[in-house]
Design goal:
about 90 residues, alpha+beta, Mth169, Chain: A
């Protein structure tokens, strides 16, 4: 089993109104040193695959078909071999 930690971010050319709102709120709270804020998503995937190559292929397919908007978002991830998760969802 593999675990992928996927980070999804807006492309640099895309405006981020949520990030701008957080930046203004931080400044209002006294965090004037914060210059720029961009908001993204963190997604964890547990993947049953025999090889890391197979797991990476599944992560790429999931990101391209569902987890990201390829017009507006970029993604990157790291992947590691893990034991099966113990938490029940």
């Amino acid at each position: 089993m593999f675990k992928a930690n996927v980070e999804v971010t807006l492309r640099p050319s895309i405006l981020d109104p949520q990030g701008k709102a957080v930046q203004h709120a931080l400044h209002d709270l006294g965090f004037a040193a914060v210059g720029k804020v961009r908001i993204g998503k963190h997604i964890e995937l547990w993947i049953e695959a025999e090889t890391e190559t197979e797991a990476r292929s599944l992560v790429d397919a999931a990101c391209e078909k569902l987890l990201t908007n390829p017009v507006m978002e970029d993604y990157e991830y790291d992947i590691e071999r893990v034991e099966e998760p113990t938490a029940v969802d």
